[in-house]
Write a structure and sequence with these properties.
The radius of gyration is 29 Å and the shape is globular. It has two domains: 6-218, P-loop containing nucleotide triphosphate hydrolases (Rossmann fold); 223-385, P-loop containing nucleotide triphosphate hydrolases (Rossmann fold). Helices cover 36% and strands 13% of the residues. Helix 6 (139-147) packs across helix 8. The protein is α/β, with parallel strands linked by helices.
Length: 472
């Protein structure tokens, strides 16, 4: 099939200059299929995986639409609002869209704001109130601002929904419908929706909030794994770390992204790799947004050679020049496998995806391969690939004491909070400093454990239950 150049499409010169800055020459399949439709002003529902160029496809259309049409005036009494809105399911994806928009729209002179939670609330709000052309946002923070009437969505000329299926999976569908109902009418704006799958739920949303969208599909298996060399190692759980060390030694100098299934595993793996001399960081769902941004920036800049991530934290993760993706844990969801390996071999580059399949997660292999419609090539590791590194277990975090929980304090031997911790001894009463009450031990008679006589108020409290039967 003949490749389509961006110069052959009706794209304004300022946008073409941004495309040249990004060193884009030929359209990817999803761009070649959608751009002629969207540049003509028609709504598009596109099926494409991440890493296929869909972000550039909708950004090029967005900038073209805004350049070719003057800004609409808000209705009387209505606050000024953005001209375009792009909705993404995760903060990382929103920030990646913003990064691409700043590059492709460098010569367009549009004011953009990226809106997401976990960072300065007032700063984002003030940026919007000062006037903005384009908002890139996750649903939660955007709805918060809309409800407070900081701006209106009634002047939207372009609306983009990216990774719609992931918005459904993450429970954002109610939020998404809330936003779409408050946007400009569907026949007065250009709407583009992209999704890895155009299933019934996604298409229902399209027909409800879009203007007769044209459906464009790119084969998922071709869009994701054509340029990725896949390798699978069967390995026992107890040898998995040794094999990882051997693989990292073998691929020294490469930019590596490692996926784990849980936050605890990612933290342990980061600790152990650091002890073995590797420059490594990790991101997980529990990591504060500012910390996640710092780690991602260091990895992108090359200050970190290895990044460890969980699936929740990696949605929308787009870092150039990732040569290797290693599945330290085989994912349970086949779509997560495709998403993970799609972090490499982006925009026509080559990449390698290595999966370590241990007994803990081997049960999911059949489902992954059934989804891929092919077997992942198995390689049996040589003994030399197992490296005996430094094996240091991550120290356990100290549990903070429970507030107001005098009954959970050990005060001596035994595990805090366990029944055996106080066995064979009498617990002293809490002093006034511990809460102002005296707690007597059972069977202590008229005195407490320290030998002190209970107060008169304490005696009165103990006699009250005995009066109730007589009163009855």
């Amino acid at each position: 099939m003949e490749q389509i150049t961006f110069d052959s499409l009706p794209i304004p010169e300022p946008v073409l200059n941004g495309i040249r800055d990004a060193d884009f020459k030929y359209c990817t399949p999803i761009q070649a299929a959608t751009l002629p439709i969207s540049l003509a002003g028609k709504d598009v529902a596109g099926q494409a995986q991440t890493g296929t160029g869909k972000t550039a496809a909708f950004l090029i259309t967005l900038f073209t639409q805004l350049l070719n049409h003057p800004r609409r005036k808000p209705a009387k009494g209505e606050p000024q609002g953005p001209r375009a809105l792009a909705i993404a399911p995760t903060r990382e994806l929103a920030r990646q869209i913003e990064k691409d928009a700043l590059l492709l729209g460098k010569h367009c002179d549009f004011k953009m704001v990226c809106v997401y939670g976990g960072v300065d609330y007032d700063k984002q709000r003030n940026q919007i109130k000062e006037g903005v052309d384009i908002i890139i946002a996750t649903p939660g923070r955007l709805i918060d601002y809309v409800k407070q009437r900081f701006f209106s969505l009634k002047q939207l000329e372009v609306l983009v929904v990216d990774e719609a299926d992931r918005l459904f999976d993450m429970g954002f569908i109610a939020d998404l419908r809330y936003i779409l109902r408050r946007a400009s009418p569907y026949d007065q704006r250009l709407t583009m929706l992209f999704s890895a799958t155009l299933n019934y739920r996604v298409m229902e949303l399209c027909y409800e909030h879009m203007n007769n969208p044209e459906k464009v599909s790119i084969e998922p298996e071709k869009a994701v794994v054509d340029d990725i060399t896949q390798v699978l190692y069967h390995v026992g759980y107890h040898e998995k770390f040794n094999l990882l060390l051997g693989l990292l030694k073998q691929e020294a100098g490469k930019k590596v992204l490692i996926f784990c299934n849980t936050k605890a595993t990612s933290e342990r793996l980061e600790f152990k790799l650091q002890k073995n001399g590797y420059n490594v960081g990790h991101i997980s769902g529990d990591l504060h947004q500012r910390a996640r941004i710092r780690v991602l920036e260091k990895f992108t800049a090359g200050d970190l050679d290895i990044l460890i991530a969980t699936d929740v934290a990696s949605r929308g993760l787009h870092v150039d020049d990732i040569t290797h993706v290693i599945n330290y844990d085989l994912p349970q969801d086949p779509e997560d496998y495709v998403h993970r390996i799609g972090r490499t071999a982006r925009a026509g580059a080559k990449g390698t995806a290595i999966t370590l399949c241990c007994e803990n997660y081997a049960v999911h292999l059949d489902r992954v391969e059934e989804y891929l419609k092919h077997k992942i090539p198995v390689v049996w590791p040589e003994d030399e690939l197992f490296v005996q590194g430094v094996h240091v277990e991550m120290p356990k975090r100290k549990r903070p004491p429970r507030s107001g929980g005098g009954e959970h304090r050990s005060g001596g031997r035994g595990k805090p909070g366990s029944r055996s911790s106080g066995r064979g001894r009498t617990r002293p009463p809490r002093s006034d400093a511990d809460g102002g009450r005296s707690v007597s031990s059972s069977g202590s008679g008229g005195s407490n454990a320290s030998g002190a006589t209970p107060s008169s108020s304490s005696r009165r409290r103990r006699r009250r239950p005995a009066k109730k039967p007589a009163a009855g």
